[in-house]
Amino acid sequence: MGKSPRVIFKVERVAEGDWQIQAHYPETEIRYIKGFKTKAEIDEWMGGTRRIDWLRSQGYAK
Length: 62
Fold this sequence. Notes:
The protein is α+β, with helices and mostly antiparallel strands and 62 residues long. Helix content is 29%, strand content 34%. It is globular.
């Protein structure tokens, strides 16, 4: 049994005060999580329960 692929998150600054996260998963389209105003908001999202909630909503976590 091999490990299942993991979602890789990449942070992208779109413009001043406009940040987003790219969620890369093998053999699927890149998903964009938008609506962040600062890098600190992204750091909070990545370190908190919202990341796990998003993974569950997309079917990537139990």
